[in-house]
């Protein structure tokens, strides 16, 4: 890789005085004070074991090569390092570790594990999940080979495995043995959902060998040029999410259920403890997030709507909100069980109310209705762990955006009446390309 500021510059890459074959390339953009500061050109070259000299010219000027903070004139040190890494990888067992959250399954890793277990039984696989998880017994009965991530045995398996396949990038995995835990492993990032915002500041810190995406816009926003991601077409693949196969298969129509699923605000989090568990933030109830959602959920208007039209209401906010549920003092008719499968909730709901969560894509896959309650848009994108990306809720979203309780309630009533006579949601058509129930097969 090399850095440049002139996008019209020329380059020449030579291997032993012959033009090199570039298998993958990427132009990454760096910003300073909201303006482009610098570009980085990343390239993957085809090099055989006999290659000796690499020359890179930018605007006819030869660049000095640096590898592992050492100036080099040939590829000797590069091959020496690669040989050492190859020896480390050779010690890995043909074992794949799957993981969703340490305390919860029911996500992409679970669904891909099930596919491999049923279709490729010779492959050695284990699934990381705490024994106190509500999903543990369910998966144990199904025949999942489970291991508790808090145990020494899990660390042994992590040391021996060749592939780690996860929907999350949690510290108990990538930092189990220090910063180089994944150096000799393949890390397959299944993702927790569709990436619609710019999360480059977070994922760029991690070693990701395969990065799963689900829409063309998402794929291009990560693998394409002139964005903030370090990843290219080498790592990023377009397959669809593993869990969508079962989602489409188990869809239920003509239900009367409102699913309310707001996402989290990182700036409201308490201190992080082991296995991604956080302490409770005593100031949470003072936040606009708490006040606005409580105001809506506890409103008589919502209760009257549900009773009049025979709807059940399910409130399942982001898992980080779970420890604050009692603070909401929700009316008894609102269901809040986290033990119910997320897949089942999507399949048995008629519509969803969220704020910025990518779970709206789950409803889009099922061609169901979505409302966005966004009362803190500016605050959310300025203070959260990511910034707004290619996705515009107004242009690309799957429903209307509401900013206060009254317009949300009015639109909800309109939608309930509309659903009673029109089951089809035309808004989401043609926005999702993978609906053929073969996502797991593509990922494998």
UniProtKB/TrEMBL annotation:
A Pfam family assignment: Glyphos_transf
Matching Gene3D superfamilies:
3.40.50.12580
Report the InterPro entries cross-referenced here. Answer: Glycerophosphate_synth (IPR007554), TagF_C (IPR043148), Teichoic_Acid_Biosynth (IPR051612)
Q: State the superkingdom.
A: Bacteria
Coiled-coil segments on the chain, per record: none
- GO MF terms held by the record: CDP-glycerol glycerophosphotransferase activity
Sorted alphabetically, the Gene Ontology cellular component annotations on this record are: membrane
State the name under which the record lists this protein: Capsular biosynthesis protein
